[in-house]
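Researcher: Going back to the complex we discussed earlier. I've cleaned up the inputs and rechecked each line, so this should be the final set. Can you rerun the prediction on the complete assembly and write out the structure?
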Amino acid sequence: MTVRPPADVGMCLDEVDTPALIIDLDAFEANLSRMANASQAAGVRLRPHAKTHKCAIIALRQIALGAVGVCCQKVSEAEALVQGGVRDVLVTNEIVGKRKIAHLAALAREATLGVCVDDADNIAALDSAAAAAGATLDVLVEVDVGAHRCGVAPGAPALALARRIAAARALRFAGLQVYQGSAQHIRDFDERRAAIDAAVEAAGQTVALLSEHDLACRSVTGAGTGTFRFEASSGLYNELQAGSYIFMDADYAQNHGEGGGPFDEFQHSLFVYTTVMSTPEPGRAVVDAGLKASSVDSGLPTVHGMPGVDFVGASDEHGKLVFDAGETSLSLGDRLKLIPGHCDPTVNLYDWYVCVRDGRVQALWPIVARGALL
Amino acid sequence: MTVRPPADVGMCLDEVDTPALIIDLDAFEANLSRMANASQAAGVRLRPHAKTHKCAIIALRQIALGAVGVCCQKVSEAEALVQGGVRDVLVTNEIVGKRKIAHLAALAREATLGVCVDDADNIAALDSAAAAAGATLDVLVEVDVGAHRCGVAPGAPALALARRIAAARALRFAGLQVYQGSAQHIRDFDERRAAIDAAVEAAGQTVALLSEHDLACRSVTGAGTGTFRFEASSGLYNELQAGSYIFMDADYAQNHGEGGGPFDEFQHSLFVYTTVMSTPEPGRAVVDAGLKASSVDSGLPTVHGMPGVDFVGASDEHGKLVFDAGETSLSLGDRLKLIPGHCDPTVNLYDWYVCVRDGRVQALWPIVARGALL
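Model: Rerun complete. Updated structure for the full complex:
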């Protein structure tokens, strides 16, 4: 059900009800531009991942800065984005199940739709549904380049699937999905680069094999916020799927940059805004944001801009803070900004972005694909 | 935004789109009855916690079986429940912030509303808002009986707040909130009982002190699914707030019963229904339910009814299964039921319960307070 927004446009930030999901528009726009410029400079397409933001307004802003379209993971996410005006969506995932595939095929009549496969029977099911819907689907073979999640092995298994796609009536072979997801959060810069070097090697062999069989890979697509510069300069990948760069999160902040320096080319722009609701004893406070306000799967949120105040525990609706009572004082009603441990599942807990500039609410953006699991 | 339901009423279970949140109605109804009977037999009121289910239909079924009302944690949850027909709601939490308090006071004109406090200024703010709204709020003093989250210390600090409430214009002193939340998941039965014994001791001293000052505690309320039998037989608590008993989850299943036996008086009735979307190699499968479909804050989900198949990892939209390929075979499109690690934050990810009996969808219940964070 859609909940009422926690703010009105024009309100001062400190009037916003909490917990609220805040976008710092200046930081957010700087992140959008930086990635757009980086991909243009590298001569590769940008297709940002909308599973991060689930918001058609943000997708359209990314496209306005040069992105060719967006990615998502679920058919129902694609539906929400297409309804919101996005004309080109790649579902970077396998879609299994009659009902889901029928929805996907129907959507391909409205917009350019791509999908990934790692199974021959699934190709047949997609082809039947697309033909029945009078639509054409772009289909990419997902190759496992090190993440060991979905995908076929590089080389011959990928070739076998590509041939089936190319032979199908209502499918277009569109290339390779070669996302090395498990590399994104490798802390060490050189290890992270080595993981992508291995992915590039595996993907490159597969592209070459397909080429020998007259199967051209229009897209060699993948990359995330942790590694996109490696894929961008690989000479092989021609499309980047980074998503988290728009917001950053506490987990990505722990990556190291080159030479062990900070991983800081993007700024934290997404915050859980929260209120101190209890000050039970000196040095301890409780805020109104817990597990239902900030996903802890990749670690607890961190407190923004208040050194010495630590978020040390979350229960369903409460967050526990500790601090040195001699140095810091927190009172009932005080507001804090938390940096989520992991932005994607945190965004999925909210219906609205509260967009803030210069201390005022400038816009409320609906998170149209929140809860779009199907 | 409200997403489309994953099922239609009358459908067979295996036609339901996934991931979907399934209620096994037989198990669920057995749980409802068992707790209703247990509280009646013990002669204590039942006020189940609706933060677990966030659903007015379930609240009304609990009330039909004898519950005096429900609990929740947020003003916006209370609003959704009152809109759904619930007439008596206790917010077992401190409510801080002008906007929230104004909403709470307005709601107290529509239904019996209770709220907890642990701060004198907060009492004054509640009183002003209730008076301005022409409403009366029931107010309980939250006493920290061992959870070390919110609440004042037992004894004199609680008395001081109770006196302020009793002296307020638009507030009614309603008793003590004495929930020992950190005891609920102590695995060992005797240690769990000892934690509640200590809570009963602290609560009892406070009740006696208040009584000496002519402050009667209409409610001495608390307890959860892990400990409710101890509070019910304490001779002190007169109201139980258990919530998770209706569904159970993988975390509660790890508690021990008396003498080290299983903690099994309630059945698992809530499942994340999921589809195998990739079978990349023998002994490994990927399902379409990840972090956005099942909260992992208290551990990964477990696979129901398939011994030897282990859920070993979740990313945003994927779950990884491993199994012995010699003993088990999983194919693309196969359906599984997952028992969530933690039911409350998992429910908060969905808009609909798909209620199933005898293999068919019997009802779709809206989760009206999903995302009600304010």
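Model: Worth noting: Chain A has nine helices and 17 strands.
Researcher: Good, that matches what I expected from the previous run.
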